[in-house]
Amino acid sequence: MPAMTDKHWALIHAAGGDPDRLFAELTPLSTEELMDFGRAYYEALIELNRWEIWGAGFVMGRSQGWWMSDDAFHYFRSWIIGHGKAAYDIALSSPDDLGQFYGGEEDEFDNELLEYVVIDVLEERGVEDDPRDTVDGDADGTPRAQNMTRTRCMRSSPSWRRSSRRWKPSRSNLRPRDPVT
Predict the structure, then answer these.
(1) pTM of the prediction?
(2) Which residues of the chain have pLDDT under 50?
(3) Three-state secondary structure call for residue 33
(4) Per-residue DSSP letters for 95-109?
(5) What is the per-residue pLDDT for 69?
(6) According to the model, what pLDDT value does residue 150 have?
(7) Distance between CA 23 and CA 66 in Å, rounded?
(8) How many C-beta atoms surround the C-beta of residue 113 within 10 A?
(9) pLDDT for the residue 146
(10) How many CB atoms lie under 10 A from the CB of residue 107?
(11) Under a CB-based contact definition with an 8 Å cutoff, are residues 36 and 2 in contact?
């Protein structure tokens, strides 16, 4: 399994999570280097496919009024990678602490387009190979309750603390529901 190298993370960092900037960073790479980056990116995305990370994304997404569907979780994982190695490492070790990467009310916790940048550069070169050859299956770990309370992932963000008056606990949203299957 190809891992994200320091060079890969440097490209992500230079792009600042912006798909257009990542396109510019990846364009000078050889096709082999580009495929290597694409495989490593997708493996990192798969590594983030864990219920604990889904739970953090659920809480963060709820603050924005959206539901954590399968697709939303996929794009949330791209959002994590777009924030760089620090966010990736925190997601794997302590997902409830992802709130520190929350960029305020404009942050949608979604970076779908970042995943397709490698494919776009390859298509521009006329290369039909797809580095996303690994199947992204079911999440690892134990499913969390569908209806969750706030966790420290949002409380660790200064932006969330300022805007937390929007979300008020009630009996209906504090009761655990059936686990997600």
Answers:
(1) 0.75
(2) 145-181
(3) helix
(4) GGGGGGG---TT--S
(5) 87
(6) 44
(7) 28
(8) 16
(9) 43
(10) 15
(11) yes
